[in-house]
Design a protein that fits this description.
With 580 residues, the chain is mainly beta. It folds into 6 domains: 123 residues, Immunoglobulin-like (Sandwich); 96 residues, Immunoglobulin-like, CATH 2.60.40; 96 residues, Sandwich (Immunoglobulin-like); 96 residues, Sandwich (Immunoglobulin-like), CATH 2.60.40; 98 residues, Immunoglobulins (Immunoglobulin-like, Sandwich), CATH 2.60.40.10; 39 residues, no CATH class. The protein is 8% helix and 43% strand. It contains 3 helices and 64 strands. Strands 13, 15, 18, 19 and 20 form a 5-stranded antiparallel sheet that branches. Strands 26, 28, 31, 32 and 33 form a 5-stranded antiparallel sheet that branches. β32 and β33 form a beta hairpin. α2 runs antiparallel to α3. The longest helix has 21 residues.
């Protein structure tokens, strides 16, 4: 019976966490919990008053749980009325919360524990400060232009004015909202006569608050926008001026100031194509130059028509900009990879032949990716056109779909071309060696017991019989299979009147035929260890008495105590027999 308070406390703790109601005992101390401030915002706290029906002991903060907040500063002057401070969680927004008090951990001066859980009045927590995003629609402003500015808040706010914004190289008009204070708009007018590619609008978040009274914090910065009146010029550079098959080059177009309107159509490319031009700052644009295939030409340039671009001030470029020279040599290098034997079984290997379209240099095993296998070192006897190696499949793997992948980027042809992309071999499959798992379901057998034994092969077999099985500590019924020879079962009967440990069942797979490879299985496999104890134990008077009165035993006496007494009686009986 001494375990009952612990059990009650555990039940109370579970009820406290889950919010279950618990009935109070008339003789137990009771209490009320009052939260003074029923609406808590960021930076606020609330007094919590706990008033007991009588003086109590052992009352701590661990007996209380505050939703969306934490409690601290528990104090009392009379052990009847206690106070604490409720601090709401930061960044929380919950409409209904309570403080729960677990009276099971509290006792009055007479030692009587509380027997219920009480909860406070409901309080609301809103400590989530509003945040904002500022977006300037037009990021390249010229003289006479303006741009809408959109300020989007995480929730509706009040108090926002133009005075809350710091605008670089411009001014902002009145801010207005048409959706209750979530989205605000204003008009940005750039300053005249300015050339500056990087400007932002900064919002002071302390100037507004949500409807709960929470003010913003820190600042929010807009995306960057450019202000300029200069006429743009450009230079064009190419990262690689000697292009071969499979290669590309990065093209950088650097303007004297930020520009818009540049597209690939403004560029004329000799013996090649250029992809989309992109920029993160409006000053430097990049694109990828891809040379034409099967071309050899030592004199090529890129020409930019500046009339297609406009500065931030709205001024178009004039004339052309021409890159430096680049060469193109794109006769491609190719290869084939052939696996001779495409059905590999345990112990088998096969030859792999790699043939290139021309003699190569720098080719090694590091250029090859082999699925479920390894290759011997590749070698060539014809000057680097044809290479051979031996493929050894990975032991213990069954996989019908495997290939060898050649990375041509690590191989260079005699013409100077580096390979590009990958070449994939024909498919090959492999079958793993046969395996077996033997499981004795009951690993502790007593008199009158038997156990099911399962023999789980990795795939269907034939020829498996009891002649392949060796059993210690018992005998086995005839093995049978109901799934076509993958799983076999039998019944293990332990040796009578015997005690033994370390018993196992083993199978010699040499007598079993694999249905896939049509070959013997191989090694010996063992089961888990099992214990046999079939020696009868004489019943003691105490055991007989307990058996006779068990049906009338008190509900307090547990099944575990009965088993303990029976074990003790058996021990005494053995001791007496040994003395006799």
């Amino acid at each position: 019976m001494r375990f009952r308070p612990i059990a009650i406390t555990l039940v109370a703790a579970l009820a406290l966490a889950l919010g279950w109601p618990v009935a109070a005992s008339a003789a137990s101390p009771n209490a009320t919990v009052a939260v003074a401030d029923s609406f808590l915002t960021a930076g606020e706290t609330s007094l919590v008053t706990i008033t007991f029906s009588e003086r109590v002991e052992q009352f701590t903060l661990s007996d209380m749980l505050a939703q969306s907040g934490t409690l601290g500063g528990l104090a009392t002057t009379d052990d009847v009325t206690f106070t604490a401070t409720l601090t709401p969680d930061a960044g929380a927004s919950t409409a209904s919360n309570v403080v729960r008090l677990n009276l099971f951990g509290v006792t009055d001066l007479g030692g009587v524990s509380g027997s219920t859980i009480v909860q406070s009045n409901s309080y609301r927590v809103d400590t989530r400060r509003p945040t904002a995003a500022v977006v300037v629609s037009d990021t390249a402003l010229s003289f006479g232009e303006d741009s809408p500015v959109t300020i989007t808040f995480s929730e509706a706010v009040t108090g926002l004015t133009a005075a809350d914004f710091s605008v670089e190289n411009g001014t902002i008009g009145s801010v207005t909202s048409s959706d209750g204070g979530v989205t605000w708009t204003a008009l940005l007018v750039p300053a005249a006569g300015v050339t500056d590619p990087a400007n932002v609008i900064t919002l002071d978040n302390t100037g507004f608050s949500d409807f709960g009274g929470n003010t913003g914090t820190g600042t929010t910065t807009s995306n960057s926008y450019a202000v300029s009146t200069a006429r743009p010029t450009a230079t064009i550079s190419i990262s690689d001026t000697a292009l071969v098959a499979g290669e590309t080059a990065q093209v950088a177009i650097v303007f004297s100031e930020a520009v818009t309107g540049l597209t690939a159509s403004d560029l004329t490319v000799e013996n090649g194509t250029i992809g989309s031009v992109t920029s993160s700052d409006g000053v430097t644009y990049t694109a990828t130059l891809t040379p034409a295939v099967n071309i050899t030409d030592n004199g090529n340039v890129i020409t930019l028509a500046l009339a297609g671009v406009t500065s931030a001030a709205g001024n178009p470029g004039t004339g052309t900009a021409v890159s430096g020279n680049y060469t193109v040599n794109t006769v491609p290098l190719t290869a084939t990879v052939v696996v001779d034997d495409t059905a590999l079984t345990p112990g088998k290997t096969t030859r792999v032949i790699i043939t290139f379209s021309e003699a190569v240099a720098g080719f090694s095993n590091s250029d090859l990716t082999v699925e479920n296998g390894t290759l011997s070192t590749v070698s060539s006897t014809d000057g680097g056109i044809t290479f051979g190696a031996i493929l050894t499949p990975t032991f213990g793997v069954t996989d019908a779909t495997n290939v060898i992948t050649l990375d041509l980027s690590g191989v260079q042809g005699a013409s100077g071309n580096t390979g590009t992309g990958t070449t994939i071999s024909n498919n090959y499959g492999m079958t793993a060696a046969l395996t077996l798992i033997i499981t004795v379901v009951d690993d502790a057998l007593a008199a009158g017991e038997t156990s099911v034994v399962t023999f789980g092969f990795s795939r269907a077999v034939t020829g498996f019989t009891n002649a392949d099985v060796t059993v210690s500590g018992g005998t086995l019924s005839t093995v049978t299979s109901a799934d076509g020879g993958v799983t076999f079962t039998a019944t293990l009967t332990p040796t009578a009147d015997s005690r033994s440990r370390g018993n196992t069942i083993s199978v010699d797979l040499a007598g079993v035929t694999d249905s896939v490879t049509n070959a013997p299985g191989g090694a010996v496999t063992m089961s888990n260890v099992f214990v046999v104890d079939t020696v009868a134990v004489a019943a003691t008077p105490a055991a007989r008495l307990l058996a006779a009165t068990g049906a009338q035993a008190s509900g307090i006496l547990t099944t575990g105590l009965l088993l303990l007494l029976l074990g003790a009686g058996a021990f005494v009986a053995r001791r007496r027999q040994s003395r006799a």
